[in-house]
Amino acid sequence: MSTSERTPTVVSFGEDVLDRMVLAVENVRDRLRRATVALEAANVPYAVIGGNAVGAWVSKVDPTIARNTVDVDLLVNRTDFDLVKAALEKAGFVYRHVKSIDMFLDGPGARARDALHILYAGEKVRGDDLSPAPSLDISASHDSYRLLDLEPLLMMKLTSFRRKDQVHIQDLIQAGLIDNSWIAKFPPELAMRLQAILDDPEG
After folding, report:
1. Of 17, 32, 47, 174, which is the most buried if we count CB atoms within 10 A?
2. The 115-120 sheet, strands edge to edge
3. Which InterPro entries does the record cross-reference, listed alphabetically (predicted)?
């Protein structure tokens, strides 16, 4: 039998696999909701950033291309950290500092993957970043929580520029939220990164 005539292997998955996939997405959304509700109740300034922020912006235009993420990333002021910690611990999160990252695990036995990651406004995430994280002054309401505005969110993605950041930028382009007119908004090196993705949006 030739290679072309071989019957492809079909792997069967039960309904429980789909249930677990849905539950994983719901857990991330629940984590985001509980964290933002806690910060809102404590009147602590914050903004949702990262993949959840990209997904929120994309869903405003076309929910069918919004991408799920396992990360919950929040931008806060470092001077508010004690207030952030108190609010999140009251909501059941457990503070950990791991490899220079401040995070809040979703309960005592949770994994680092199931955590809130905290970034600080006006500070570089990594020492060699081209730009610091933006100010919290540039955020907007989205449903029941605060969401970083699109331009500073894009700046953060261009600054980090890991593979997943590039994919998030592609999503924003596909949704029609970003185009060539945005090039002039950024300093030269970040503008070059954006131009490269705009020139090849499919990667």
Report:
1. 47
2. 94-98, 101-105, 115-120, 72-76, 47-49, 145-148, 139-142
3. NT_sf
**Residue 160 domain flag:** no
Please give the average per-residue pLDDT across 93-101, as a whole number: 93
Tell me, yes or no, whether 184 lies in a domain: no
Contact criterion met (CB below 8 Å) for 169 and 194: yes
pTM of the model: 0.86
Residue 28: give the domain boundaries. 16-149
H-helix or E-strand containing 166?
helix 163-174
For the record, the structure tokens of 169 come out as 């930028």
Whether residue 191 is contained in a domain is answered as no
Inform me whether the pLDDT recorded for 85 exceeds 90: yes
What CATH number is given to the structural domain containing 79? 3.30.460
Interacting residues of 83 by C-beta distance below 8 A, sequence separation 6+:
42, 44
Banded pLDDT at 44 (limits 50, 70, 90):
very high
User: Is 6 part of any domain?
Assistant: no
Q: How confident is the model at residue 137 (pLDDT cuts 50, 70, 90)?
A: confident
pLDDT band at 14 (very low <50, low <70, confident <90, very high): low
Fill in the DSSP letter of residue 7. P
